[in-house]
Amino acid sequence: MPIQIDRRAEHDDIVYPATVPFLLVHLACFAAIWTGVTVEAVILGVGLYWLRMFGIGAGYHRYFSHRAFSSSRPVQLALAVLAQSSAQRSVLWWAAKHRHHHLHSDTEQDVHSPVRCGFLYSHVGWIFARRHDDTDLSKIADFARFPELTWLHRFELVPAVLLAVLCFLVAGWSGLVIGFFWSTVAVYHATFCINSLAHVRGKKRFVTGDESRNNWVLAIMTMGEGWHNNHHAYQSSARQGFRWWEIDPTYYILLGLSRLGVVWDLKTPPAQVLRNEQRLGTKVVYRAAEQLAARFNVERIAAATAAALHGPDLAALRASFASAQHRAADLLASLDLPHVPDRDELLAEARAMFAKTPSLDTIVDRAYAILLASVASRLVNAT
């Protein structure tokens, strides 16, 4: 069944004046008409794109959001400055929102789910919403204790402004426009595509209870962040390309830095995860079961069942449900009604819907219970 979302409710708190600086950064790119495009500026822009993309993947994401590796305090600060030079808010704000995303991925509480609130809002609109402006420091308390990071949190644009000045000093006005603004806009949208497209386009290798997908095009654009389904399957891994052919430059650089002693304790997925043999957690099983149960039209099943039963039979069934609500699903299953899907039908749907997982039977059992309970509830409450 499709998810019904009131898009107006999702968008009515957008702080439109807050979009002005964001739009100005985009408009500044057109200044190249007057500044021209120099070779030095292009080289600067391309270099800064890849450097800051590494800062986002290694800094914002794998280190501050997931603690996928360890480093010294100076390196931690350097990663924070590099990440914030991309002008995507502070590392504390970014990581707190991302941790919240993983707790509620593609549910109503997710801050940027394209499944729930559409592509545009998940891509960029959510950033300007009032309810997402504040930082829940309790979600990022492990890093909020560092005064240098809280200073960067208060003055989050300082690294980006300093980088813009440096670009101007290195390559003049063209260096500012091409080197800084063009690369900043490119980094913006490559990063935002992980929030939006990586939950819509691609393949699922793992059952994660959400719509995260692996997308090789996004992986190339983001230095490995596009292996998003892999990441949701094992979030604390410094390596997101689980197969040899899944290019993950951010991990390769981290691996090189670890051999130099700059970073250490790089976490990688265990062999059980790589073989897709891990048992799924309760939360993932429940979310996957809800997804499976939602593939069946509960209203239609309940209506067909009610129509097939004669008046006294339906009344007796409702009375049985009402007197034993906690066993309503069991009672419904025992009746073997033709309009109610059986477990084998759910199992067939699950095999077509989900990737291979040893938890498939558990998902099906849970989905079957959810489906029967929903049908029973509608039969009891039908007028």
UniProtKB/TrEMBL annotation:
The record's Gene Ontology cellular component field reads: membrane
Residue spans crossing the bilayer = 14-35, 41-60, 155-174
User: Topology in the membrane?
Assistant: Multi-pass membrane protein
Record keywords, A-Z: Fatty acid biosynthesis, Fatty acid metabolism, Iron, Lipid biosynthesis, Lipid metabolism, Membrane, Oxidoreductase, Transmembrane, Transmembrane helix
Which compartments is it annotated to reside in? Membrane
The protein's GO terms of the molecular function aspect are:
oxidoreductase activity, acting on paired donors, with oxidation of a pair of donors resulting in the reduction of molecular oxygen to two molecules of water
Which Pfam families does this entry report, sorted A to Z? FA_desaturase (PF00487)
InterPro entries referenced in this protein's UniProt entry, alphabetically: Acyl-CoA_DS (IPR015876), FA_desaturase_dom (IPR005804)
Q: Tell me the ranges covered by the Fatty acid desaturase domain, including all copies.
A: 45-254
Its GO biological process annotations read: fatty acid biosynthetic process
Q: Which family does it belong to?
A: Belongs to the fatty acid desaturase type 2 family.
Write the protein's name: Acyl-CoA desaturase
The organism named in the record is Rhodoplanes serenus
